[in-house]
Amino acid sequence: MTPQFVFTQQGDIIDFTNTTANPIRPGDPVPLAGAFGVATGDGIAPGATGPVVVRGVFLGPADPAVAYGQGDKLYWDPANQRLTNNATDTVYAGYAVQAKSAGTGNGYVKLHF
By residue range, what is the domain housing residue 83? Predict the structure, then answer.
């Protein structure tokens, strides 16, 4: 017998349980195992489950020292709390929707879960 899959949701927003002692506010980055999302709704209290967007385009803090091109892979740097094109010690976030020049502190990322 072949296993069956049952559709449950679109997948643009998933449920995430906050296992930390700190609240997650709307707009906060949410690094996931091998992926990245952004908290939405009212945020997520410690121990609670709430919505995290895993697909879409977001403008967020980016490493001002680096430039990257449209379509380049972007990563979330949890130590410095910003997007970067450096894959070392980071979490894959998605790809650049627009090129970013050095000296710019924000960048557009298309989340790719």
Answer: 13-112
